[in-house]
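# step 3/5: fold
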Amino acid sequence: MNRRLLAYFLLDTSGSMRGEPIQALNNGFNGLVNMLRTDPQAMDSLHISVVTFDREVQNIVPLTDLASFQPVEIQCPESGPTHTGQALEMMCSLVNRELIKGTIERKGDWKPLLFIFTDGKPSDLQKYRVFIPKVKRLDFGMIVGCAAGPKAEVSFLKELTDDVVKLDTTDSNTLTTFFKWVSSSIEMGSKSQGTGESMTLPPPPSELNIVV
């Protein structure tokens, strides 16, 4: 059995993403998958899971290997809250169920990756804060937060991870640039885990502001 690299994407689909932002998210995310398919190492080991969160939280793409991944049409409601805490809760249960731990007889999966994208802030802040330590205990190789657009709150993502990028807009060009950067992050992550080095993010393009 090949060691797998599991990448979990938590994507904000609350009402404020309606219109151009959700189209841009679809184009950017499906473009990311196409870019990753050109990397033989990703094709060999990468498995992707997508969780969307708005009023409801759904695992719209259960864990799927990169070669079998089908383009996805991400939808969002007309309005409603952003249940980020509930998304973390679902993701924790997925990782606990899906990640194969190493034993004396065999090597387990590589450390998983988590990418969380939001254009707002958690509506269920109390639950969000309850699950932050639980997420950290899962020992991800990398957690990247993305705050997109003028209303995105960076501070809540910073509670979850030190690696947060801020996008000024949610248009197609900016999101495409972000997902290209995510693609190179995953490629670097899969290579560094293979060598046993700790994972580091590639330098971001000018459209992405790393939040210190």
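# step 4/5: annotate
The longest helix spans residues 172-195.
# step 5/5: archive (pending)
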